[in-house]
Amino acid sequence: MKNFKIILVFVLFAFGVTLNAKVKYSKFIDTQLQLVYQMNDANLSQEQIEDLVQKQEYLYDQELNKIISNKQYYIENVQDYSTEIFSLKKIISINKRAGNGYAVIRDEVQLKSYAIVKNQNILIKNVLLSLDVPTINDFEEKLNIYTAQNQEALSKITTKDYKDILALQDDSSILKATKQNIREYYALQEINSDFIAFLYKAENKLYRLNKYSKYHIIKPVVFIDSFTSVKTVDRLLEPYGLSVVKLIIIFLLILVIYFLRKVFYIALQKLFLKIDFLSRYSEQILEKLRKSIEVLILIINVNMVIYVYNNFSSIEEVSRIFNIIYGFYFTLIIYIIVNTAAVIKLNTFEKEKSNIKSELINVGLKIINFFIVIIGLLIVLYFAGVDLTAVLSGLGIGGFAVAFAAKDTISNFFGTLSVLFSDVFSQGDWIEVDGKEGVVVEIGLRVTTLRTFDNALIAIPNGIFASKDIKNWNKRKLGRRIKMTLGIKYDSKQADIKNAIKEIKEMLQNHPQIATKDTMYEYKIEYGHMAKLVSKDDLEGIKKTLLVYLDEFGDSSINILIYCFSKSVDWEEWLKTKQDVMEKIMIIFENNSLEFAFPSLSIYNETESGKEKI
After folding, report:
1. What is the H or E stretch that residue 506 is in?
2. Are β-strands 470-472 and 457-461 bridged in parallel, bridged antiparallel, or unpaired?
3. What residues of the chain score a pLDDT lower than 70?
4. pLDDT per residue over 83-110, tens digit each?
5. Per the CB 3.0–4.6 Å rule, which of 247, 446, 479, 548 could disulfide with 543?
6. Strand ranges (E), 33-110
7. Partners of 565 in the beta sheet?
8. Dihedral-angle region of residue 529 (phi above 0 means left; psi in -120 to 50 means alpha; beta otherwise)
9. If we measure between CA atoms, which residue out of 219, 226, 343 comes closest to residue 284?
10. pTM of the model
11. For the residues of 176-213, what is the DSSP string, one character each?
């Protein structure tokens, strides 16, 4: 009986070795195993390793196309190796009782290898199921979850290290089989890591291919991608989020939308003919609408291009923007239809000399246009995410009553809009309004707060800004004025005065901090987009005037006017420049024997011999 048990163990052991020898995970994994073995060969050159890496990436790419093309099959048929695992567990338990240590390790490692591949197959299934989420960002979140689950399961499988067994020197067939299983076990771990890395690298392509599969164009896409030249071009386009297939689809979409334009015109004309009120004006209305529809088609093209570029995924913010634009164009089209029909009808009334009052027609048309604008605004607000219930509730009679009672508040609110849209001043600007001066702290809905230079806080109702003059000292980019009058004594010589004026002017023209006509400035405002003619210098606040002239004969001095601008508008830098100019003027006066005059009074004593100055 004992001999029979020993024979049975050896038979089962032999069966286990045979089973191990014939195990095939899948064609893809078996090929990847061979590549991993080759790459782990220390005798390979750099070029050989690079060739193997390229081959590995090519195989991953081919497998990806295969999986997406047969998505449903891979979801419904997850290979779990249950039969092989069950058999191995039986063999392990027998080998344990028989004391065959290496055989137990061999089969335990094989069991873990099956678990790794099974875990990878589950990951593939979960990834395929998560591809149908609305956006690529949602897919990325799902991918993070499932790869984390894969790694957690893998960490439980790979708790034991078998590398010490690989160092054993023994020619027994059991040990050789055990070593082979261990090498395969570690290689499968590498393949699992490489597979996850490939998923993250190709997540955009994976999501895009799934969309192609959903739109039933996966086969032509895979066919196009199979060309070597296409792969080469794709590698160049990939950093920009593009591919050859994407470009082809974008081009075809543009063509289709362009040719559908005529179909749209015909459908719109048929619609107008069915409406009695518009049937007589269909041609004129379509002519007026043509430009708007052309722009709308262009916008639809842009929307579709962005959708395809983003791997057939909508971006919430972008979709909202396009919905707002569509709402605006819907309103515009209705506005054009109504006003075109109204203009034609008005011309008819004029020719027929109708008794209908023109004022009544004009008022009626304005009311209609008002409601069109209001409805269009509500549509745009809806697409912008505004709660229309709150907006509509404020349009009732009670809303008008409250508005009348709170007219000052509304005045201040519209004053706020006036300030914000007119760009008269901004936070941080030094302004002066209605006798109050300071730096703008905040522009609120009702009031604007100023911080005065003596550190007090002033709140000014925004309604004031609509009716008062505002002086903004910050609306200047180059040039802060320096103006002074220099008084010199009457007994100064004309030549000295003339020479001093000349030297002062030359000093100012050569001063590095004084603006002159030669001072260069880079204009910030794009004047090409403005619909009016303005002085660039005055618009941006640029002053370069420089004047030095003999100005007047004063009561006690001959006065010289100096009028110029410092380059900097900063107060401290302006003071430094002004001080430097004054010091240089003092030196010039000293060099020309001129003295500053001061207010004085001369008294003359008139005698018979003449006048005597006292």
Report:
1. helix 494-510
2. unpaired
3. 1-24, 42, 272-282, 345-367, 388, 390-410, 412-423, 444-446, 466, 523-535, 538, 600-614
4. 888 888 899 889 888 888 888 888 898 9
5. 479
6. none
7. 481
8. alpha
9. 343
10. 0.50
11. HHHHHHHHHHHHHHHHHHHHHHHHHHTHHHHHHHHHHH
